[in-house]
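Example 3.2
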Amino acid sequence: MTDSHTPVSPGPGSDPTSPDAQPPTAAASGTPTPGSAPGHSAPSVPMSNVPSAPISTSPGAPASAPPTPPKPASTPTPAEGRQFLAAWLLSYFLGVFGVDRFYLGKVGTGLLKLFTLGGAGIWWLVDLILILAGAMRDRAGRPLVGFDRYKVIAWIVTAVLVVVGIVAGSVGGATAGSHTPDAVTAPSTPSSVATDDTPAKDAASPGAEASAPEAVAPAEPVDVSKTWADDTFGTFAVVKKSGRGDSLIALPKGATGGLVTAAYTGQGNFAISVLDASNTSTGELLVNTIGHYSGTSAWGMAALGEGARLQVSAEGAWTITLAPLSTAKKFTGSARGTGDAVLLYPGDAAALTATHKGSANFVVYEKTDQTFHMGLLINEIGAYSGTVPLAAGPSILSVQADGAWTLKAG
């Protein structure tokens, strides 16, 4: 008997010797499958309906692993900006000198803020509010790091410091205004006049003259303002220097401030600045003019460091005298002058009315021992007439002017 099954021919394009060729099934070879009757072939299943597993192209190679899903790209870490806490503290305590803007990388506006002493306090206040409100950015435009975390604490601490400063200023002004030197009681002297009960020995002798009691000179009252100046800035012997051209003058040791009276007869630039022990500027430019000069200024009023020497820049002859601040002329409520001057104020808090008839800068600065006192009272160019608040003394008033000026406290 002949086989009734016709061999299945390979499909078009297939190679029987290829490793990818499928082996013949039982149905195709005519071999009966288990459970089928002899002589009957099992029904053939179309190959297209049988799912095929991936087969390696290399004989004996294991099946390839499923492809690994791509990893998401890592998000770059943003560059951190300046710290909010540092910017806030620098703005509150040193913002009048522009230190907060230097920290934020804004050197140009920092220098401008330094030279104007915080824009007479207004710029200092504006920058502080911007930082506390989170509106301040560094030079690269980045927000301050840690603002959301520390903003509530910063607002609370700032409010407490402001209240403490106001209370301390009020108490200090009231104390200074009500303080008067204690009266000195003259020692009692025995009288030479006899009482009614005990006759005097001299009176019993005819012709004896009674001795007159010795007059006791009253004690000189203590000058509170001068004592305060010596205790605050130190005292020293007067120093006089003279020269020609550039020079350095050592400041008295132990003194943190003093008067600088200078005279210059040259025609070129004349400047006096303060340097610390490392010859770095303390930020105090006492004199900067061209041509003849005569006036008095003070070092130690708004310094960023402790002064060690004066740097003199000049083309002609000059003389400089250093003296304690306690020797400054006392401002008792009214003063007038021309050019730079320094006054010692012992009075109460008052309204200070000032005028200036010059054409250059007119600056009035008050130095007290109050922690939160803003010392810059006036900073104008040219003619000026106005009234500003004056803190209670004792204090030092520094006047910078190129023309005639008047001050009156009332």
